[in-house]
Amino acid sequence: MHLIGYFPGSDFASDSQYGRQVHVYKFIQTALTMDEVTCEFFVGDDGGQFPGDNVRSVMTTGSFPARLYHELRRTLALVRTIRATDETTVLYTRESPHFAPIVAAELTAAKLVVESNGVPRNVRENVDSDLQYLTLTGVRRAKWRRADHVIAVSESVADYLRENHGVEAITVVENGVDTDLFDCRTEVASSPPYTICYVGGLQPWQNIELMLQTISRMDIDAELLIVGGDEDRQTYLQSIAADEGISDRVTFVGRVPHEDVPEYINRSDLCFGPFAEERPASPLKMYEYLACGREVALVNDDGLEFLDDYPGVHRFGFDDPDVLAAQIDDVLSAVATNDAGTEKVQRDRSWRAVTETVISVCQTVSTDAN
């Protein structure tokens, strides 16, 4: 099988795409070491991360028409690449607004496997015009319809695709963690004061405000360490912390290199996962916390039920901060180093295990083509 990964939106020279960047980077890095598949990748900017000729940088910027033009050129490049090999080709891409894999699959015998990492939210708010919105949503729908197989990162995402887009050929493969980088280096504290760590973006839908309100109402002595997010959101949330009277108990670290994240997780005694009523996803932070031996508290009513199967994960219903504060107090009163959680993600969720599963699905699709 010949695998072509198409990820022109992935910019490995930037620090602004944490989850998406890590996922694609580790998939490419691992796939390139596997003997059972030949592969090459189209990415936005490889950032000098991948030696050799297997990874091509194809990023383009500029106006919407200019980006469409360059996508057409990349379509031709994909077609030429597919036709240059006698092996069955599988195009592996995401549900991003890039149409080249769809057209290339139509013009050749290549199979199309599409990875879906979540459910689109606020799409119209994030584009400049109705034309861009229609193009983006249209390409997404076309990818799901044209795909020979879809890989969803959680059962909730798979359910969304089945119910709303009629996708039938679908496999759930959760996200993973770099088990060489993320490990348990320190034991959690046995008594207060405790440190709670949150790693991730600070977008409004992350509900960091609710985290801050919860911290301010807790009885147990605990501080919050927030790693990630841009300066504007940090400034806004610092004002919320001040209003709650907890400025001295909240530290905003900002963005840090990925290799430094385990250090901050290991400073903590408990970690905060998503605080979202609905979240069809497979958050990387959850696996990173567990790999570092931390218990995790998250707030979610719908979308993250599968995390209940992980040792040391405490999922609470979306509620007011007084109720959540009492629940977090209860968790901290018995918190311990989460060895069972570490063992599970090391065994099941390493990037090699995830990549091998994805490659296996692609090989099955390739075999069916023959």
UniProtKB/TrEMBL annotation:
InterPro entries: Glyco_trans_4-like_N
Pfam family, one: Glyco_transf_4
Keywords associated with the record: Transferase
Keyword Transferase (UniProt): yes
GO function terms (MF aspect): transferase activity
Transmembrane intervals: none
Glycosyltransferase subfamily 4-like N-terminal domain sequence ranges: 32-180
Keyword Protein transport: no
Protein name per UniProt: Glycosyltransferase involved in cell wall bisynthesis
Organism: Natronoarchaeum philippinense
